[in-house]
Amino acid sequence: MTPTELAPTFFLAAIVILLACRLVGRVLRAFGQPPVVGEMVTGVVLGPSVLGLLAPGVEQAIFPDELRPVLYVVGQIGLVVFMFQAGYEFRVDRMRQVARPASLVSVAGVLTPMLLGVLLAVLAAGHVDMYPPGVPLLVSALFVGVTLSITAFPMLARIITERGLTGTRFGSLSLAAGALDDAVAWVLLAGVLSISAASIGPFALAAGGSAVFVVLLVAVVRSAGRLDRAVRRLTPENLLMAVVLAVFLAAWYTDTIGLYAVFGAFSLGVVLPRSEQVDAAVRTVKPVATVFLPLFFTYSGLNTDLALLVDSGVLLFAVGALVAAIVGKLGACWAAARLVGEPNSVAARVGALMNARGLMQLIAINVGLAAGIVTPQLFSVLVLVALVTTIMATPLLTFLDRRERRRTPDPEPEPVA
Hints:
There is one protein chain. By secondary structure, this protein is mostly helical. The chain has a single domain (about 5-400), classed as Na+/H+ antiporter like fold (Up-down Bundle). Helices cover about 80% and strands about 0% of the residues. The protein contains 18 helices and no strands. It has helices spanning about 5-30, 35-45, 50-55, 55-60, 70-90, 100-125, 135-150, 155-160, 170-195, 200-220, 225-235, 235-255, 260-270, 275-300, 310-340, 345-355, 360-370, 375-405. Helix 5 (about 70-90) packs antiparallel against helix 14, helix 6 packs across helix 9 and helix 15 (about 310-340) packs across helix 18. The longest helix is centred in the last third of the chain and has 32 residues, at about 375-405. The chain is globular and about 60 Å long.
């Protein structure tokens, strides 16, 4: 397919994706799910799991193989802009007061699901055809463990913002722990890729590059005053261009060192000085995420075939992965929060939020697919885990809210004078 032929194909695919996302999102909104969940589900619906099963010719016509790299790249633009916005809305000042409990919750939320995932993968070896030939069992087991340890930080931030929970104790604790979780998980993923490549290079690059990146971010924070004065001298058009270039540069750097583009974009959003001019620039780029992020979900959905779960062994593995994911993340984060003295109402909500994996797990398994250490069966299992654990978050929070309201007695009416 030539570029001239690919252009109209891309436009048609984008139309189908955006309309389908809007339709599915409206249906799921009735069940209290945020728009990003609708986009995740739509991605799977448009792939071989639903559309490809019902009308394989239609799926291939709308999403030919030559189009998939284009969907991936354009989807990355939406993903990077979305994470930049999440970082810009992230309030660091509210994280300091929960730094200690967040650290313990993060450690528990990473180690427990990782150990359970590794154990599950090792036990399944030889019984289920899940792993690619030529890839050491250690690599496959560690990859499963790392992906189960990930928290969907963007999803978590979206839920907290949309429900007005930013100023709550459990909202702040979950945001801080989720950010730590994902940073650690991506360094661990770089380690897995290093083992897969039989080289220390990827891990050393990720660790060393991260240290350099932290130094650069600190420099940005310390020069906030000078940056603010420079921003005031720029025209809105030049400021918008400067912001876009900075976001893409940060995304390129972290992608190059193996931490993935989203972390560079998110980190830049966190440290960027706040002002009315910058606020306007951030609002201007927001539609980019709205339009292009669904393309990333569709790209993941095109690589997901839930029909592979019909095999009894794969299905059993999927159930085991779901149990390990929920117990290891929700249960461990709840227990850790209780251990540091948080009340049960806070700990339960922290566990419910941290259990969502959504977008970040999809990113990780796509990285594994590109690296050749994930089979279609394993990819589909991990997409299922991402979907189920993410869909669980909002209903769990609603259930906890209702239960707390039932337990809290109504205030007695004041006597009439």
